[in-house]
Design goal:
The chain has 312 residues and is mostly helical. Helix content is 75%, strand content 2%. The protein is built from twelve helices and two strands, in the order βααβαααααααααα. It has a two-stranded antiparallel ribbon with strand order 1-2. It is globular.
């Protein structure tokens, strides 16, 4: 217990967008709309997959996992973001900040793992369609979901303890309206090498490997599609991947942008760093259900039938 008996503040102060404090009340409205869309649209997809027999298929089970992670991510950030922007209530208890940090990073890693699982689904569907039903059984899908969840929570379990061991005496003001590991460790007045190394290890071994495997799966998919003689059949096969590709871009492009600015944009205004982080956390949960609803006719039909039954 002495390891954690160090100097630390009782609470942290969250920050909205530095330099744009006067605009916080105006930004609260769009943020509320984004949260409403993210929570509402993802909940609709979860309910549609649950009640519509036509959506009881591997692709849509993975989509429901993605929607669940988006809802969980939104719920993890919503309390502090809305308090900061709507009511200028910036304080958050130290222990609460640790919990939020753990949940945000866990659900983010979970989404990365689900996107990888979805790329495997597309790979089997296009490259080995005859064995699709025998490979992607309900038991296999449930096992993948449990593995993704376990990887997220077990990999990130040390993070709160790595923060608790650090004395924090420089400041108690965080750079965002939510708690993140890199932001919290920078406030420490001690060596943070272990935190930095572990953070880099997690980033490369999970997000980095997921992205590499997704890229390789699409290389194999493209090679298989190019072997199809019919041009129309090639387009049909690729069209089944469009929604997933857009979801991957919506998740990884902001993440790469945040990492690039963090490493190479040290002289950029602080609000640019904060805006990029907000895009990374807030945009995928909003875009994912809209992408799949717009690009997948089965989803649109199921949602229409679901609401039609509610009216009746």
């Amino acid at each position: 217990m002495a390891l954690f008996n160090v100097t630390r503040p009782a609470y942290f102060l969250l920050t909205g967008i530095p330099g744009l404090e006067s605009l916080h009340p105006w930004l609260a409205g769009p943020l509320c709309v984004m949260y409403a869309v993210a929570l509402g649209a993802n909940t609709v997809i979860l309910q549609a997959v649950r009640v519509e027999p036509s959506l009881h298929a591997p692709m849509y089970y993975f989509l429901s996992m993605l929607s669940f992670s988006d809802v969980a991510m939104s719920m993890a950030t919503l309390p502090t973001v809305l308090r900061t922007f709507c009511f200028d209530a910036r304080s958050i208890a130290f222990e609460s900040c640790l919990v939020q940090m753990f949940l945000i990073h866990s659900f983010s890693m979970m989404e990365s793992g689900i996107l990888l699982a979805m790329s495997f689904d597309r790979y089997v569907a296009i490259c080995d369609p005859l064995h699709y039903a025998t490979v992607l059984t309900n038991e296999f899908i449930a096992g993948m979901g449990l593995a993704v969840t376990a990887r997220s929570f077990l990999t990130l379990f040390p993070l709160p303890f790595l923060i608790k061991r650090l004395p924090i005496c420089r400041s108690n003001v965080l750079s965002h309206s939510y708690c993140l590991h890199p932001d919290m460790m920078k406030l420490a007045c001690a060596d943070i090498t272990i935190n930095s190394i572990y953070g880099l290890f997690v980033l490369v071994s999970t997000f980095g490997m997921d992205l590499l495997c997704i890229f390789l799966s699409y290389v194999l998919i493209l090679r298989s599609v190019m072997a199809i003689a019919s041009h129309e059949e090639r387009l049909k096969a690729l069209n089944t991947c469009v929604s997933h590709i857009l979801a991957v871009l919506a998740f990884y492009v902001p993440m790469i942008g945040v990492s690039t600015i963090h490493r190479f944009g040290k002289h950029a205004p602080r609000y640019i760093h904060v805006l990029m982080s907000n895009v990374y956390l807030f945009v995928p949960p909003v875009l994912n259900p809209l992408i799949y609803s717009a690009k997948t006719k089965e989803i649109r039909r199921a949602i229409f039938r679901m609401f039609h039954r509610i009216k009746l």
